[in-house]
Amino acid sequence: MRFRLTAFGLHLLGSTCVLTLVLGGLYLGWYHWPGWYLTAVTRVLLIVGLVDLGLGPTLTLIIANPKKPRRVLARDVTMIVAVQLAALIYGATTLWQGRPLYYTFSANRLETVQASDIENEEIALARKDNPSFAPHWYSLPRWVWAPLPQDPDKAAAIVNSASFGSGKDVIDMPRYFKAWSEGLPALRKQLKTLGEIKYFSKQEQATLRARMARLGFSTEQPNALVMWGGTARRLVAVFDPDALTIRALIEPD
C-alpha cells in the first residue's frame, strides 16, 4: 500500500504542477477579473480538473502494484498520462481560443470580445487599417471604444447585420476601434441608475443593490452600465461620474 500511495502522491504532485503552470499562465495573462467570470469557463476547468487531478492519480493508485514488472507499470502510467495530456490540451486550446482580447464600450453597453469572435479577415483588415488596435497572438486584454464608422452606409450595414444576427457587430471589427479615452464623452451620456438597467431579475437587482450599498456606491445616481460576457454572463460596471474611471465590477449572483 505504501508503494501505491507514493505513486499516487508523485502523480498528483506532477499533475498539479503542470496544471498550475498552464492555467496560471492563462489566468494571469488573459483571464483575471472579470475575464474568468464573463467567459464562463467553469465547465472546461471542471473537465480538466477531474481528469488531471482526479482520474489520473486515482488510476495510478489502482494500477501501481509493486509486484508488477516495471516495464508493464511504465506502460500503464504512460497511457494514463496520455489521457491527462489530451484533456489538458483540450482545455488549454479551448481557453486560448476563448481568451478575452477586448473589453469594449459600444452604443450603450460594455461587452467582452473573445479571440474566437474575430475572424481572420477582420484581423488582416485591422492590421492594415488600424494596426495599433489589431490583435496578435501575444495581445493582452484592452479596454477600447468601438464606435460605428462615420460612413452612414457602412454603419447601417453593420447595424442591420448585427440586428438580424446574420453577421458581425462592430465590436468584432478592430479596424474601427479607438482609444478608450476618446469614447468617454459618449459613455457619460449612457450611464444609468441601477434601477434603469433592465437586464436583471428582481433577485439580481436586490443582490446588486445590496452589494453597491455595501461598497458605498449610490444606487440612485446615474453611475452604472451593464457589461456583457460572451455567454450572456453580465456584470454591472460602476463608474466615478466625474472621472469616468471604473470603480467596481459587480456580479449579480
Global outline: elongated
Compute the gyration radius: what is it? 23 Å
Low-confidence stretches: none
Q: Quickly give the structural class.
A: alpha/beta
Q: Mean pLDDT, as a whole number? A: 91
End-to-end separation: 45 Å
Number of strands: 7
* Major sheet: 7 strands, mixed
Q: Strand order of the main beta sheet, please?
A: 4-3-1-2-5-6-7
What is the percentage of strand-forming residues? 5-15%
The percent of residues in helical segments reads 40-55%
Q: How do the SSEs run, as a string of H and E?
A: HHHHEEHEHEHHEEE
Counting DSSP H or I runs of 4 or more residues, the number of helices is 8
Number of domains as seen in the coordinates: 3
General description of the model:
By secondary structure, this protein is α/β, with parallel strands linked by helices. It folds into three domains: 2-97, no CATH class; 101-184, no CATH class; 191-253, no CATH class. Helix content is 50%, strand content 14%. The chain has eight helices and seven strands, in the order ααααββαβαβααβββ. It has a seven-stranded mixed sheet. A hairpin with a 2-residue loop joins strand 1 (100-106) and strand 2 (109-114). The mean pLDDT is 91.
List the keywords.
253 residues; alpha/beta; 3 domains; seven-stranded mixed sheet; 7 strands; 50% helix; 14% strand; elongated
Topology of helices and strands:
Layout: H1 2-31, H2 35-39, H3 42-63, H4 70-97, E1 100-106, E2 109-114, H5 120-129, E3 142-145, H6 152-163, E4 178-179, H7 184-190, H8 202-214, E5 224-228, E6 234-239, E7 246-250
Parallel strand pairs: 1-3, 2-5
Antiparallel strand pairs: 1-2, 3-4, 5-6, 6-7
Helix pairs in contact: 1-3, 1-4, 3-4
